[in-house]
Amino acid sequence: MKFALAVAATATLLLVPTGGGALAAESCPGNPDALGTSREVAIDPATLPRIGFMQYKEMVELQPKEVIFTFDDGPLPKTTPAVLEALRKECVKATFFIVGRMAKAYPNVLREVAAEGHSIATHSVTHPLIFPKQSFEKGKREIDDGFAIVNAILAQDGRQAAPWFRFPGLGRTNAFEKYLGERGVVSMSADFPVDDWLHRTPDQVYKIALARLEANGKGMFLLHDIQPSTVAMLPRLLRTLKERGYKVVHMVPLGTPGAEVARAETRTRVPAMPKQPVSDTVSPGMMPSLAEPVQPAPPATPSAAEQVPGPGGLLPARLNPLPPHDVVSRDLVPQRRDEMPFSVFWPSQIMYDLRAPTMR
Ligand SMILES: [Zn+2]
């Protein structure tokens, strides 16, 4: 039980959870006008076992204009350091959901992310699309080994991952959530994606991010540090948030010194997911259309030889084809229809796979 040991280590070893530390909102070196990080909130798995209005009814309580940044699928040497640099320049702290095989391939990039004071959480080993299609044993291994790989790397610097897990493709199930919950691990979704994984241009990603944030007034972003479009647009997004008076909130593990414990906010409606900017004028052709046949992008494969230059930069060379629908185990697909507002923004293939059988 590698995973049980990893979790038990929280209480017994002197490992320091990632994230936390001194806030730099008031004094950001070299950037007196930085966006900064306004406050830290510690996540208590007992009161917030599932987080993110995209899929759940609970979220970290945020004040109007407060934003949480999360980045998935890294680390990747060609993109993650640039994301770190953009965050560093603005003294913004975020959470990174690490893919085990990526961490194994690029352990030093993971260590760098943690050393910057960002929170580290996990996102499986191989990023199976879609998680519910795994057998329960395989799924457990994806979860347990993901934590084991990441913690083995972080332990070199006396650190440890936060007990938070994000399902690849957000493919949650009751059974896996229960498994995580029993181990004190938070199932962490988000409030809105920015579609950077659909290979949009940086300008498109920027506008979608801003439109969705402004439509909701606050919330948790889901971005990908392996996407060139995110790398390109992030400095501009952070600047705009500063200009418009937004504040960044950093999630940290429970027990982080000086961090207030996050309160839960309960959802009264699903997040708004505009495809059009609410405050910018943009030609309709610039905005993504979900009618187009898009293929979800899995995380890039670890080997540099498997990377190919794409129109926006580095793209994964191989796209994991989704298995045929008839292999979906009916009792493993998400059940809660009201918690799966994917139809608003998710590509049709993913939508089909995630919908409850009764919706098909
Ligand atoms: Zn992912």
From TrEMBL:
NodB homology domain mapped to chain residues: 65-249
Pfam families: Polysacc_deac_1
Listed PROSITE patterns: NODB
GO biological process: carbohydrate metabolic process
Signal peptide residue numbers: 1-24
Keyword terms, alphabetized: Hydrolase, Metal-binding, Signal
Gene3D superfamilies cross-referenced by the UniProt entry: Glycoside hydrolase/deacetylase
A Gene Ontology molecular function term of the record: metal ion binding
Keyword hit for Metal-binding: yes
Top-level taxon of origin: Bacteria
Region (Disordered): 271-314
InterPro entries, A to Z: Glyco_hydro/deAcase_b/a-brl, NODB_dom, Polysacc_deacetylase_ArnD
Keyword Endoplasmic reticulum among record annotations: no
One GO cellular component term: membrane
CDD domains in the record: CE4_NodB_like_6s_7s
Annotated family: Belongs to the polysaccharide deacetylase family.
Function: Is involved in generating a small heat-stable compound (Nod), an acylated oligomer of N-acetylglucosamine, that stimulates mitosis in various plant protoplasts.
Protein name as it appears in the record: Chitooligosaccharide deacetylase
Organism annotation: Blastochloris sulfoviridis
